Amino acid sequence: MAVVVITKAMTDEAFAATAAQSSPAAKQFKTGDAVVYPGHGVGRVDHVGMQDVAGHKIEMIQISFAENQMTIRLPAAKVATTGLRKLSSKADAEKAIAALSGRPRISKVMWSKRAQEYQARINSGDLLALAELLRDLRRNAGSQDGSFSERQIFETALDRFASEIATVRGEDKADTSQQLIALLIKAQPASVAAAAEKAAAKEKAEAKDGDTEAED
């Protein structure tokens, strides 16, 4: 019986032939596109094309994140598993914003499990999931009453959400963030909203005074 010996050269050749094929998933992205990469947020495609990696030609998508000055190279074959997607449409963005005013979902499970669930929503890259998380934690908007851990999760979710909404609308992220906080405060019960608005106004005034002192 004949024995076929599979050499490293043969496996390398097979790997290269497979890798060199253009990935259908990568065709939806082009240079200059704004994209959302779960775990990192909004970035921009710098390049899509074949690159030499360890002697193999692999189709790669290079994405830069200006805010944190980071660049990643993602194999096109990994697009589906990483959740890389195009920016949300204006209609989907407005739908997500509307969800901020919905009734919060109250969870009675242990904080450790809730924290894991919240982090999973943030890392999902799903805009509506982020909106629902902000809705559920909106008591943190304009207030420092929540726990430190919950506040951190709220601020991370707000940062990711505001980043995509601002990009979709073509607005400044800081302005968008303030608008979203105002919406979250407005959706709270009247007494809570009034206190939150007062706290938010005080925080904004203190920040403005700090900027003035820095200029002096």
UniProtKB/TrEMBL annotation:
Gene3D superfamilies assigned to the protein according to its UniProt record, in alphabetical order: 2.40.10.170, CarD-like, C-terminal domain (1.20.58.1290)
SUPFAM superfamilies to which the protein is assigned, alphabetical: CarD-like
InterPro entries: CarD-like/TRCF_RID, CarD-like/TRCF_RID_sf, CarD-like_C, CarD-like_regulator, CarD_C
Region Disordered, residue ranges: 196-216
Basic and acidic residues bias spans: 199-216
Domain CarD-like/TRCF RNAP-interacting: 28-138
GO biological process: rRNA transcription
Top-rank taxon: Bacteria
PANTHER family: RNA POLYMERASE-BINDING TRANSCRIPTION FACTOR CARD, TRANSCRIPTION FACTOR YDEB-RELATED
The protein's name in its UniProt record: CarD-like transcriptional regulator
Lineage: Bacteria, Pseudomonadati, Pseudomonadota, Alphaproteobacteria, Acetobacterales
